[in-house]
C-alpha cells in the first residue's frame, strides 16, 4: 500500500495508513511551490537586509547579524547545537510518521527549503532509513527543537540511523544507501527543526491506538454485560435520543447490536430480581459515548495540525516576504493529547469496574473470582488487581500536560505548551489499556462459560471463539500471565473489534 502526500490536504486515514507502515510518495504537484519558495529566499537574501532565521541568530540572539559567507555554517550550527535530546529513542513507526509530517509541511512551499532537501526526506522514507532520535528534550514550543534537530542531523550525516535492522552511523548508512549528506542552505536548518511534527506524530499514534482499543472495549463491555446477565434496556435508543449526544447514541446502538439475538439475554428478560445494573454496565453508552466524542474532537484538531505549516519564519513567495510568527507553538496538540489521555483513562476505568463486578459474587451472581472451586483456587483475583494497578497508573498519567509551562531561551520563549510530554505518554497509556481490556475479555468469557449451554449473540460468540482458541476456560489455577498476553494480542491486532460493525472515531 502506498500513500500519496498531498500537502495541506491529507485525511486522518492517510496518516493512519502511514503509521501502519504504508509507503510514502509526494505528489509532484507540490514541486512548483517548493521551488518558488526557495527562490524567494534567494531574492530576500539579495536585498542584504536582516531577516530572522535567514541571516540572523536565533531566539534571544535574533539581533545578531550573520555575514553571507557564514550562512551555511549558521544552519549547520543550529542543527548540531539543538540536537541535545536525551532518553530512550523514539519508536521507529513514530519517527517514520514524524518524517512524513515534516515532508508534508515543507512541501507546502512556505518554508523556503530547496528541492534537494525535500528529496532527502523522500529518499529516507522510501528506504526506511530512519534517524535514531532521543525522545526527551522538547517543551512543545519554538517547535519540537531537540528531536527535530536530531532528525536534521541525520540528514547532514551526523548521529545515528536505523537501517536494515541495524543502528548505524548516519554518514555510513547514507553512503551505503547512495545518498550524499545534505549541505543546508539558508533557513533550511531552522525550517527542519522548527515545527510540531514530533508532538503531532506521537499524538496521532496515540489516537490511532485509542481507536482500536475503544472498539475492543465495546465488545468486552457487551460480553461482561452478558456474563453478569445484565439488561440491555439501558441501551434503548429512546433513552439516548432524549439526551442527544451523537457519541452516546452510536455507542448505545453498538451495544444493542452486539447483544442482539442472545439466548443468555433472553433467559432473564422476565423474572429478573435485579431492578438496575451497576453503572459500569448501565452507563456504558454515556461513558464510552463521551470518550468517543473526545477522540473525534482530538482527531479533528490533529488532522488540521498535520495539514498545517508550523515552522518559522514563513516565506510568502508572491511578495518575497519572510514573516515571523508563532505557528510552532503546539498548544492545539497539547490540548488534543490531554483529551486523548482522558478518554484512555476512562475507557480503562469503567472496564476495570466491570472486571471487579464480575469477580464479586454479590454483584455478578457468578462463582467468587470466576473459579468453579473458590478457596482452593484464586481464579481471577489477581488479574483484577493487575487491571486496577494499570488503571491507576493511567490516572496518574492523565494529568493535563497543557496546564504546565516553563520559560526557556533566556525568557524569549516564556510560555510553552508541553505538547511533547502530553503526546509522548499516550502510547504507554494505550499499552496499559490494552492489557486491561485483555483481562476483561478473559473474565467476561469465563463468566459466560458458566451460563452454558446458553449462548450469546453471534457477534459475541465470535469473540468468545477467538479467545477460546487461544485460552481455554479456567477450571483450576495455572500460570496466568501467558493467558493475559494472548488475550491482549487479540485486542491489539483488531481481532476482537472486528467481530462486529462498530462506530468509528475518525
Automatic annotation (TrEMBL):
GO biological process: L-histidine catabolic process to glutamate and formamide; L-histidine catabolic process to glutamate and formate
Molecular-function GO terms, alphabetical: histidine ammonia-lyase activity
Annotated catalysed reactions: L-histidine = trans-urocanate + NH4(+)
2,3-didehydroalanine (Ser) modifications at: 142
CDD domains in UniProt: PAL-HAL
PROSITE patterns according to UniProt: PAL_HISTIDASE (PS00488)
SUPFAM superfamilies: L-aspartase-like
Lyase is among the record's keywords: yes
EC number: 4.3.1.3
EC main group: lyase
Gene Ontology CC terms: cytoplasm
PTM section of the record: Contains an active site 4-methylidene-imidazol-5-one (MIO), which is formed autocatalytically by cyclization and dehydration of residues Ala-Ser-Gly.
5-imidazolinone (Ala-Gly) crosslink, residue number(s): 141-143
Annotated protein name in UniProt: Histidine ammonia-lyase
Source organism (scientific name): Hephaestia caeni
Amino acid at each position: 500500500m502506498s500513500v500519496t502526500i498531498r500537502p495541506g490536504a491529507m485525511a486522518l486515514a492517510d496518516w493512519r495508513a502511514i503509521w501502519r507502515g504504508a509507503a510514502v510518495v509526494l505528489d509532484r504537484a507540490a514541486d512548483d511551490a517548493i521551488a518558488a519558495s526557495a527562490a524567494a529566499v534567494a531574492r530576500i537574501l539579495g536585498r542584504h537586509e536582516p531577516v530572522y532565521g535567514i541571516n540572523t541568530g536565533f531566539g534571544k540572539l535574533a539581533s545578531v547579524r550573520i555575514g553571507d559567507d557564514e550562512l551555511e555554517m549558521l544552519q549547520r550550527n543550529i542543527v548540531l547545537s539543538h540536537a541535545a535530546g536525551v532518553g530512550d529513542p523514539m519508536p521507529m513507526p513514530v519517527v517514520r510518521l514524524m518524517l512524513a509530517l515534516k515532508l508534508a509541511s515543507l512541501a507546502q512551499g512556505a518554508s523556503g527549503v530547496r528541492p534537494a532537501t525535500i528529496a532527502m526526506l523522500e529518499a529516507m522514507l522510501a528506504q526506511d532509513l530512519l534517524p535514531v532520535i532521543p525522545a526527551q528534550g522538547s517543551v512543545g514550543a519554538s517547535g519540537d527543537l531537540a528531536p527535530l534537530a536530531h532528525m536534521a542531523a541525520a540528514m547532514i550525516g551526523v548521529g545515528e540511523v536505523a537501517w536494515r535492522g541495524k543502528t548505524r552511523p548516519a554518514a555510513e548508512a547514507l553512503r551505503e544507501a547512495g545518498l550524499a549528506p545534505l549541505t543546508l542552505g539558508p533557513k533550511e536548518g531552522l525550517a527542519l527543526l522548527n515545527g510540531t511534527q514530533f508532538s503531532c506524530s506521537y499524538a496521532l499514534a496515540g489516537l490511532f491506538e485509542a481507536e482500536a482499543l475503544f472498539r475492543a472495549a465495546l465488545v468486552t463491555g457487551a460480553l461482561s454485560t452478558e456474563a453478569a446477565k445484565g439488561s440491555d434496556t439501558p441501551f434503548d435508543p429512546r433513552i439516548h435520543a432524549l439526551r442527544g449526544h451523537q457519541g452516546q447514541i452510536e455507542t448505545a446502538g453498538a451495544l444493542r447490536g452486539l447483544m442482539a439475538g442472545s439466548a443468555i439475554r433472553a433467559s432473564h428478560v422476565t423474572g429478573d430480581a435485579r431492578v438496575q445494573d451497576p453503572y459500569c454496565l448501565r452507563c456504558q453508552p454515556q461513558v464510552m459515548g463521551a470518550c468517543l466524542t473526545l477522540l473525534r474532537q482530538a482527531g479533528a484538531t490533529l488532522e488540521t495540525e498535520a495539514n498545517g505549516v508550523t515552522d518559522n519564519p514563513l516565506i510568502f513567495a508572491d511578495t518575497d516576504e519572510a514573516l515571523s510568527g508563532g505557528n510552532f507553538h503546539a498548544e492545539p496538540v497539547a490540548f488534543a493529547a490531554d483529551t486523548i489521555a482522558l478518554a484512555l483513562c476512562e475507557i480503562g476505568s469503567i472496564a476495570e469496574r466491570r472486571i471487579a463486578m464480575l469477580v464479586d459474587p454479590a454483584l455478578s451472581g457468578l462463582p467468587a473470582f470466576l473459579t468453579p472451586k473458590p478457596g482452593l483456587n484464586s481464579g481471577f483475583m489477581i488479574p483484577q488487581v493487575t487491571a486496577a494497578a494499570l488503571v491507576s497508573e493511567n490516572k496518574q498519567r492523565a494529568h493535563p500536560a497543557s496546564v504546565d509551562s516553563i520559560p526557556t531561551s533566556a525568557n524569549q520563549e516564556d510560555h510553552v505548551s508541553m505538547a511533547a510530554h502530553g503526546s509522548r505518554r499516550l502510547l504507554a497509556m494505550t499499552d496499559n489499556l490494552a492489557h486491561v481490556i485483555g483481562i476483561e475479555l478473559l473474565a467476561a468469557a469465563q463468566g459466560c462459560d458458566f451460563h452454558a449451554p446458553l449462548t450469546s449473540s453471534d457477534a459475541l460468540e465470535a469473540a468468545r471463539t477467538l479467545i477460546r482458541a487461544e485460552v481455554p476456560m479456567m477450571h483450576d489455577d495455572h500460570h496466568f500471565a501467558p493467558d493475559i498476553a494472548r488475550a491482549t494480542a487479540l485486542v491489539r491486532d483488531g481481532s476482537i473489534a472486528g467481530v462486529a460493525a462498530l462506530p468509528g472515531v475518525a
